[in-house]
Write a structure and sequence with these properties.
Helices cover 39% and strands 12% of the residues. With 235 residues, the chain is of the alpha/beta class. Strands 1, 2, 3, 4, 5 and 6 form a 6-stranded parallel sheet that branches.
Length: 235
Amino acid sequence: MVNEALEEDGSYRSSPFYNTIGEAFIPLAFKFAKKYSPKSELYYNDYNLEYNGNKTRGAERIVKLIKSYGVHIDGVGLQAHLAQEVTPTAGALPSQAGLETVLKGLTALDVDVVYTEIDIRMNTPATPEKLKAQAKAYESVARSCLAVKRCVGMTVWGISDAFSWIPVSDSRTLPTEWNTDCNHRVSSPVRVLLFFGTRTSRRSPLTMDSSRVSRVARGRGDDYSDSELRMVCWI
């Protein structure tokens, strides 16, 4: 609903809306969105909320602000543009426990949370060790969501590296789970965690089909999982 309204220090970004109306533009936007699209789920969405710093506090402040106006907000989206190691534009990946702390801090305000744009970069060139670390990083993010009852979804950014928002010419490439040929790079159990997490309703937690997870984790049924997970690459 409202996207990237915060600076890194948690203050508001300059914009025509903020400069004219002040912070009230945010609850007003949610108010009118709810009025004219009552069935839509309304989220505040931003990046670098995962580090539990001033920007995270800013997102919590926005949730409280919206509620103080008596306006409805469904949740907060965490973009999760992360890196498995320190890069020129990203810090170290937060631990799974750290991610869960952030998610729980937001859900304590009676809103849902969702990872909206997951990608995890590395410094290139890639090595087998770095690829394993990337898989573990994806798993950590996925498991943090599964561990928090009101984390209701995970979405990855881009179909493959070829379609990522991070340019191939950038030194921080290989951000997605598939390479430029749409061949999967992240290990099967992690892909299952990311894509077979489901929920039965908006308020229910993500759950896993353990039989499907175990089939792929044991190295069985790979054709079955690939046919589902790679279908988007063939469109």
